[in-house]
Amino acid sequence: MDIEALKTEIDGIRIEENPAVVKQKSRDFFWYSPVLKEQLDHITADIVVSPNDEAEVIRVLSACCRLGIPVTPRGTGTGNYGQAMPLSGGVILNLAEMSAVREIAPGRVVCEPGAVLAQIDRATRAHSGQELRLSPSTYQTASIGGFVAGGSGGIGSIRWGGLRDLGNILRLRVVTMEEEPRVLELTGEELHKVTHAYGTNGIITEVEMPLTAAYEWVDVIVGFESFMDAARYGNALARQDGILTKLISPIAAPAPFDYFKRHQKFLREGQSVCLVMVAPQSLDAFRAFTERAGGEVVFDAADAGPEETKGLPPVTELSWNHTTLRALRVDSAITYLQVLYPFPNQIDLVAKIHAMIPDEMIGHLEFVRFDGDITCFGLPMIRYSTAERLEEIIRLHEENGCPIFNPHRYTLEEGGMKQTDEVQLAFKREADPKGLLNPGKMIAWENPDYDYRSDKPFLFPRLQRAS
Amino acid sequence: MDIEALKTEIDGIRIEENPAVVKQKSRDFFWYSPVLKEQLDHITADIVVSPNDEAEVIRVLSACCRLGIPVTPRGTGTGNYGQAMPLSGGVILNLAEMSAVREIAPGRVVCEPGAVLAQIDRATRAHSGQELRLSPSTYQTASIGGFVAGGSGGIGSIRWGGLRDLGNILRLRVVTMEEEPRVLELTGEELHKVTHAYGTNGIITEVEMPLTAAYEWVDVIVGFESFMDAARYGNALARQDGILTKLISPIAAPAPFDYFKRHQKFLREGQSVCLVMVAPQSLDAFRAFTERAGGEVVFDAADAGPEETKGLPPVTELSWNHTTLRALRVDSAITYLQVLYPFPNQIDLVAKIHAMIPDEMIGHLEFVRFDGDITCFGLPMIRYSTAERLEEIIRLHEENGCPIFNPHRYTLEEGGMKQTDEVQLAFKREADPKGLLNPGKMIAWENPDYDYRSDKPFLFPRLQRAS
């Protein structure tokens, strides 16, 4: 890999070769998974390149294409599955410097891929009281390009579904990996080509996202005697069409008391909870509903005084992947899964699965709209013993009709639908004919004969060897 | 009925006794129903009283209570079931003069009951780019108080459900019908006491409603070969969580071509359609979805030139009860029903029912969120022959699991759930102990022994006799 030749070719563009920094920029939150931690801990790029604008991106891609150097794009590295990890080394294309918020209009924002979600919302709130529809729990640090390329939904999905749904991304500007890179504008049906493709088939240089009305969302925590009470409450609240919520997250004991340290003073040991973000104008209705449903409000930010809320993280940072993060900080043996509980049996399935795995699994649900219905994902915390037992737990879910989006795999297919995405594969043939973008992440490209029903994880042959 | 004594008591408050004007102010759109037309055509109040503020409302109610004079509140008279018709004469309390928009804040508006919906939206749009969540197709003329007291939902229900859902009304200020009227503020669970009670148990003097982001909604009409194609398309569109719509209304041939005269140039004879209002930021996604679904866009306001759109009514005025109105203008023998097609079988039920009644019924659906699910109401147009045949058609619906909200009845119960609403009845006992507010509309008050399962319409004994 002729990194020296590359440096000459891209002279004037910011680079970084300090091995410690390069290694740090080659990592994400893959270590949430003990499986990925073992497989990927040694991975590092050869060089980090930080373009300032699309013209520099084009120069880098052109040079790397000619020199046959792999390029792995990276936003701020908040992914959990090694999305931005350079499995065969080469260049980390650090897009964090391209962070401008370019244009705000009713219902729309245009920005560069490195813009951080919270930064975008600050700009759109100040401009016209608007905010993004969807964000991960890493809202304060995640970039919009990384979210579009490596995320799927999160806070706001109870109202808007996921990023894969038509309308939740408006336009992407994408540069191809060719000797003469092309710049494409994708809208409508074409967006799927590069959405959630981990940057394997194009580099996103501009993102247009829909906006919705911003409110001073109120954090509330509702306490329950049991996890299933919290789950049923969350399900019923999610189905209240007139109560505007942004987050509904039931979490089983002992997680709330044991892992949410700053909130411990509001909680009882052994208490399960439902985290809620509710719009201020829906508070009265929310409280009426909660009373009707027999929930006990243990924390309500609208009622809490400044001393009570001082130093408290927002409930967003107790939810989605942050739930697991807080558990990991207390107990490093915790890992997690990602489950879909299909509508309309979500509540029965949650009860059944959690009864089957009572001790190793701590329940955590996130209510969402999914294909037009209200249902829930699970992000259960798992007390990890062995990779085999983890596989067994996954099998128990799947045998009971609950698909797993496996967060212990670094490929698109194994973490997703376990089948070739023909649209994304075809676009890779067109936009990255040499297969240099984020190698090893798209099985369909690396090994067209791979059997998705085999129980064995895909092993990327050109995975960097541990030294 | 001592109207002269009343006039003395309320001296200084605006009144109207001209019989032609009083009769006009005693009517609504009850004549949509041939049944109600026959029953109620002669109804008239003795006097119209038009208070300017809550203090005048209190004076009127106090005087009427002492004198035993019935009081029927009226907004702008856009109801369809005689909601504001004074069955026993007395006073029409015309609240149209109390029309101030008092306060606008993020997510909220406070107004007087006579404020017209379009007027409220003009104020909230100008103030902060906000609009009401829900409105009837009579948006340009209906008052907010009348909508809350006599309506149920409409445009926007595909996103927010109905007025009966917690959170879709924030606060109501209500004056009781007592010698010393009390002023009550209702929020949360208590709102149900007077919501959709036709003013039978209190007079609304202030309304606080939730607001949502206003957009320059785009009117689109999608054409289909058959009504069921339009229905399936509407159902699938309604389930697109990322595409922001405000109206999804499939309407069967021959209605679009025959009844939507101004839009005829865009339509083919025999074409069924789906009317859609879509947010501008969702247009690309909407078009991609429509192409995927095989719909043919026959009118798209975002693409149409000024000559094409000149004089066209908005699609809102082709939808909900306006569909029937346009049919009636062309064919006075048309009437209608109101049906719920329960989730998840809505599409099969629509197909089944329409196949059973092929010639007399012209399909018209409105997609809504209902108790957390996406389903549709039907407002089928009916070629009216006899009251008996209409009853038979109603029976066919009910026998097949499709509840009818009968628009050919003037009572709350027969138009609604066909059972006593204990909360509203209890509140009437408290707030209108003499039973003077809008007499004859609440069966539970007039005849506690009434059998809702009898096939006979409730006949109010004190219904004014036709002269």
From TrEMBL, chains A, B:
Keywords: FAD, Flavoprotein. SUPFAM superfamilies: FAD-binding/transporter-associated domain-like, FAD-linked oxidases, C-terminal domain. The keyword Nuclease does not apply. One of its GO terms (biological process) is lactate catabolic process. Pfam families: FAD_binding_4. Residues 40-214 form the FAD-binding PCMH-type domain. The keyword Repeat does not apply. It comes from the Bacteria. One of its GO terms (molecular function) is D-lactate dehydrogenase (cytochrome) activity. This is FAD-linked oxidase. It comes from Aquibium oceanicum.
